[in-house]
Design a protein that fits this description.
By secondary structure, the protein is of the alpha+beta class. The protein contains 5 helices and 4 strands. Among the domains are: about 55 residues, no CATH class; about 55 residues, no CATH class.
């Protein structure tokens, strides 16, 4: 195991007596000692079994580790894309649940990329929050005359804040032919 001891003179200090039970402590880092140690501190040793990789590929793979950890952190988010709680007990259903959560994560990343291309600067979680504020309204219009005509349903996006409206238009949501699956009936 490789260990590096701090030299005793790296952190310097002076204790000055002021009065009874009162002291003034002054401390600093010795610049000369720090410069000597600066050659040893801050280095990491990466060990790999990928002998055919270049140094650049090894370093990029090491830095990419944080991206994978970030994915797991997002999937554990209890507000969006939550992997837990899962109410499954068989291996097959647990695997399908995990697959669906991973697929949802990938779709959110695609939507986030599309939103960034249209000027959105927030995180994927902020995107989901903004998109959840968009609501679809169902309007039931009666026939113009008192006949046996059919009632007509019209679907429209509700009014929204200007920044959310820009986001919805940038992602093409306002041009979609939206329809709800909520059944309704009209009795005369």
């Amino acid at each position: 195991m490789l260990t590096t001891r701090l030299p005793e003179n790296l952190i310097r200090w002076r204790l000055e007596y002021l009065k009874e039970d009162a002291f003034d402590l002054d401390f600093w880092v010795d610049k000369k000692e720090f410069d000597l140690l600066n050659r040893k501190f801050g280095y990491r040793i990466l060990i790999t079994n990928q002998h055919d990789w270049s140094t650049k590929e090894i370093i990029l793979a090491y830095w990419g580790q944080s991206k994978i950890e970030n994915v797991f952190q997002k999937i554990k988010n209890p507000f969006h894309l939550a992997l837990r709680p899962q109410y499954h007990w068989t291996d097959q259903k647990i695997e399908v649940h995990g697959f669906i959560c991973l697929l949802a994560f990938l779709l959110v990343m695609v939507a986030s990329k599309r939103a960034r291309e249209n000027g959105f600067t927030g995180t994927p979680d902020a995107l989901l929050e903004k998109l959840s504020a968009i609501r679809l309204a169902t309007f039931i219009e009666s026939p113009l005359q008192k006949t046996k005509g059919r009632y007509k349903t019209v679907y429209r996006l509700e009014e929204m804040d200007p920044d959310i409206k820009v986001l919805a238009e940038g992602m093409g949501l306002s041009e979609l032919k939206l329809k709800t699956k909520i059944p309704f009936s009209v009795y005369n």
